[in-house]
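User: Please fill in residues for this 327-position structure.
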């Protein structure tokens, strides 16, 4: 399939996950929240919802908002301090989102996740059902990692990966990563004049993986390597992914209009895709049963615990994503 054909099909996407990073939500000079950009983002997402699309926002910014409120000039390194900043900042960030979305009469919900939510079969199923119920109610979920309780063992580490896992969890057909860079380059454009933007990546090869050099700022945590990891997850679960510059959030409309912006990674749905393969930890190694899956057999009486999608009535094997039917 050509790039133009892949771009054209973006117009028909119905279940969309949008991720925006900390560096795209804050002023570069001060680290404070960019209220003008936040308001424009809210307006774009509400309009997508008004079109009948299902929208999920994965938003960074809690630690950045909290650190400014608590007087830290740079991103703290100590985990307990970062978690304290997240506790303060998440409340402030959600207050802003709810106030701005309310201007357009759009309901929102807060969902905080950790790897444990995904690793545990019952928690994962409950999260899946919650997302579907919110979609039926036309509520826009605002997702972030639950930094205040995450440990090194169960944290996602970046919202690029988190957004891809959310896309897999809900059966999204589109993932948009808004960052501080235009897309995937042949080299780091900040340091190389020879770097050129790659508009279309039909397949993630070793050469593409080698391009994923870590890059970022004191505000965000995700570099290009995490975005390529997100692309691998989204492609496997059947969602097209576009990496684009979040400087102007109206680019979301351009992407869904099929315009050639950012870098497009088309979906290559893998029928054997299992999102828990991307969640392994020392406690739960890859390929081993995850907590809750041991007891997912016929002795369970509750169909939700057994992996049945309450909203769609669709049986799902442990770790496998549900079908993409929009309920």
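Assistant: Residues filled in for all 327 positions:
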């Amino acid at each position: 399939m050509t790039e133009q054909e892949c771009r054209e099909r973006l117009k028909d996407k119905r279940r969309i996950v949008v991720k925006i990073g900390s560096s795209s939500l804050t002023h570069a000079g001060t680290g404070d929240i960019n209220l003008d950009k936040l308001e424009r983002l809210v307006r774009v997402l509400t309009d997508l919802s008004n079109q009948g699309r299902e929208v999920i926002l994965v938003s960074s910014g809690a630690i950045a908002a909290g650190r400014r409120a608590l007087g830290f000039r740079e991103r703290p390194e100590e985990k307990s301090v970062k978690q304290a900043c997240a506790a303060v900042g998440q409340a402030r960030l959600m207050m802003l989102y709810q106030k701005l979305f309310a201007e357009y009469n759009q309901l929102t919900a807060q969902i905080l996740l950790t790897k444990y939510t995904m690793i545990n079969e019952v928690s994962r199923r409950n999260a899946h059902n919650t997302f579907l119920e919110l979609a039926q109610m036309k509520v826009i979920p605002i997702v972030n990692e639950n930094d205040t309780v995450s440990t090194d063992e169960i944290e996602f580490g970046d919202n690029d990966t988190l957004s891809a896992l959310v896309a897999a969890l809900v059966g999204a057909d589109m993932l948009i990563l808004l960052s501080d860079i235009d897309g995937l380059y042949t080299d780091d454009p900040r340091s190389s004049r020879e770097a050129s933007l790659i508009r279309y990546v039909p397949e993630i090869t070793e050469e593409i993986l080698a391009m994923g050099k870590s890059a970022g700022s004191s505000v965000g945590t995700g570099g290009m390597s995490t975005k390529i990891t997100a692309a691998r997850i989204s492609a496997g679960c059947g969602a097209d992914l576009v990496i684009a510059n979040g400087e102007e959030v109206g680019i979301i409309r351009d992407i869904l209009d099929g315009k050639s912006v950012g870098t497009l990674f088309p979906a290559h749905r893998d029928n054997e895709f299992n999102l828990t393969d991307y969640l392994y930890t020392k406690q739960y190694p890859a390929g081993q049963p995850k907590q809750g899956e041991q007891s997912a057999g016929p002795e369970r009486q509750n169909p939700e615990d057994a992996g049945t999608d309450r909203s769609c009535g669709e049986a799902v094997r442990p770790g496998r994503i549900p079908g993409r039917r929009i309920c």
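For context: The longest strand covers residues 15-20.
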